[in-house]
Amino acid sequence: VDFADSASRLGEDSAFARSCASCADRLPAPCDVCTVRALTICAPLTVAELHEVSRSVTAVTLARGETLFDVGDPAAHAFNLTIGALMLSRLLADGRRQVTGFLFPGDFLGLGEEERHRCTAIALVPTRLCRFARADFARLLDRHPDMERQLLRVASQEIAAAQDQMVLLGRKTAQEKVASFLLLLSRRAAQRGQRPDPVQLPMGRAAIADHLGLTIETVSRVIGGLRRRRLIALRPGGAVALLDRPALEALAGED
Amino acid sequence: VDFADSASRLGEDSAFARSCASCADRLPAPCDVCTVRALTICAPLTVAELHEVSRSVTAVTLARGETLFDVGDPAAHAFNLTIGALMLSRLLADGRRQVTGFLFPGDFLGLGEEERHRCTAIALVPTRLCRFARADFARLLDRHPDMERQLLRVASQEIAAAQDQMVLLGRKTAQEKVASFLLLLSRRAAQRGQRPDPVQLPMGRAAIADHLGLTIETVSRVIGGLRRRRLIALRPGGAVALLDRPALEALAGED
DNA sequence: CGGTAACTTGATGTTGGTCAACCTAGGTGG
DNA sequence: CCACCTAGGTTGACCAACATCAAGTTACCG
């Protein structure tokens, strides 16, 4: 149980637990011991380069539910998520919300050169990120073409993921949406070296619903249905066991 | 009436009209006279650099309805659309289709380093593109950091657009979807220096429906409703006049 | 002028939304 | 340690937006 793990470990570290986005500490960003480096845009850097990066980086800590930035905030930083999970969302005038994505360890945040953020970023669990000042980051890219190339790769993956999500939102049924979502989280967990099977769901039903273009009630009903048909089982701490992956894949549609 | 213009001009040029994706001609790619350069990834290049680019570029021509590439085709090229319009779409197993985007002059196609295409690209009208071999293109980027930076900018714009589309697909009503779509096309036309008001719709109702996550009938009904309320008017050749832009913007939602 | 494909319009059906009640678990304070 | 309180989740009854099915109608093309 991985998110719970992170959460409890962080819970013990009281300094971590109490700090927040606004009080990012200038303590050494420990790139040397970074647990997710292989997954991030820092992957192609040499040890020497890493040291250089270390100097322009600050650690940021968020408690569960805390906001990293809001729509309209000046976009002065780029981030690399190292521990925890983040939700990106946008609001319509009347409060309807679309969750445009979830971020997990190794994920990068801050592509785009817009002056202001176009979405809100909220921590789903205690979360830690590496923060780069935009200006430093641009200089970093200039000096490390490898890193820029890697960033381009990350961007194109994000575009591919966005297209998948469009197919899901535009053309899939509620069941297909939920099944696809569970399988996607499982695959992403595997990609970052975590166990793919009991899928951790650090987000609540509301966040899932707003990500899939459904309501809380529909998400709950579909999950209930999958559970009754023994395709999944709910584990304590919001984890979901995928009891019949082939059946779920069939339900997910997706050719 | 711009698309019609392009179409008829192209129609007169019989060589152009008859050529196709597979018979891309090695004729000089006329970067010198490129009408959309300021809009494309080539914008930051100097005259000398442009000449160099010219050499690694091939012109491709597509007739209305012709396929540039299909899902699963090897992705050996990158493209820059110079004339016409293209539709990108993906299919579910049972034939449900999601149109993930439309491309217009100045738009770039071919981010991502995947071996195979993840979507189908079909010309909506007679269309011309600049084609770069992937290998050449990568070398081009290495030598022109400006171009790589520009590509990153393009990628991040595409991500922003994809997020807008997720909000639309996940949380907007049929009316809001159609109004948003018309306004978006208008804005994009303005961006590339065309008249924003009679909006050209080079795509059919089916393509619009598959882009907005609706059916043909619903799109038709909503357009009919907007027309009856005098917010829009249908012009010959598939153009739409935006008679009451503020009202449309109100209908579109979007804060 | 006919033929076809795209579009429109109408009648009916279904998925998922809405509204409301009810559970359950986790956290707090007595 | 237990009772309560609350937020999040589940379940049910009903409803509405949009899909589906089925005719028309228009517009473009030879």
Layout of helices and strands, plus pairs?
Two copies of one chain form a homodimer.
Chain A: H1 2-12, H2 14-18, H3 47-55, E1 57-62, E2 67-69, E3 77-83, E4 86-91, E5 97-103, E6 108-109, E7 120-123, E8 127-133, H4 134-143, H5 145-171, H6 174-191, E9 199-200, H7 205-212, H8 216-228, E10 232-235, E11 239-242, H9 245-251
Antiparallel strand pairs in A: 1-8, 2-7, 3-6, 3-8, 4-5, 4-7, 9-11, 10-11
Helix pairs in contact in A: 4-5, 6-9, 7-8
The structure holds a DNA duplex (30 and 30 nucleotides).
Can you give me a brief rundown of this structure?
The structure is a homodimer of 255-residue chains. Chain A is of the alpha+beta class. Chain A has helices at 2-12, 14-18, 47-55, 134-143, 145-171, 174-191, 205-212, 216-228, 245-251; strands at 57-62, 67-69, 77-83, 86-91, 97-103, 108-109, 120-123, 127-133, 199-200, 232-235, 239-242.
As a percent range, the share of helical residues of chain A equals: 40-55%
SS-based class of chain A: alpha+beta
The total of beta strands of chain A comes to 11
Mean pLDDT of chain A: 87
N to C succession of SSEs of chain A: HHHEEEEEEEEHHHEHHEEH
Q: State the largest interface.
A: A-B, 44 and 44 residues
Order of the strands making up the biggest sheet of chain A: 1-8-3-6
Poorly predicted ranges of chain A: 1-27
Number of helices of chain A: 9
Shape summary of chain A: globular
N-to-C terminal Cα separation of chain A, in Å?
31 Å
The quaternary structure here is homodimer
- The proportion of strand residues of chain A reads 15-25%
Q: What is the alpha-carbon Rg of chain A in Å?
A: 19 Å
Query: Major sheet of chain A: size, sense and barrel closure?
Result: 4 strands, antiparallel
